Amino acid sequence: MNVPDFGLAGLEAQLWQVLLLSIRCGAALFAAPMLGAMAVPVPARILASLALGHFLAAHVPLAALPAPLSLAAALAVLHEVAIGLALGFVLQLAFAAALIAAEQIAGTMGLALATAIDPASGAQAGALGTFLGLVMSLLFFASGAHLLWFELLVESYRLLPAGGAGLGPEQARDLALFMGLGLASAAAIAAPVVLVLLLVQVVTGIIARAAPALNLFALGLPAGVLAGIAALILALPAILAQLRSAIAAALELAGAIAGTGAGLGAP
Question: Does any domain span residue 1?
Answer without folding.
Answer: no
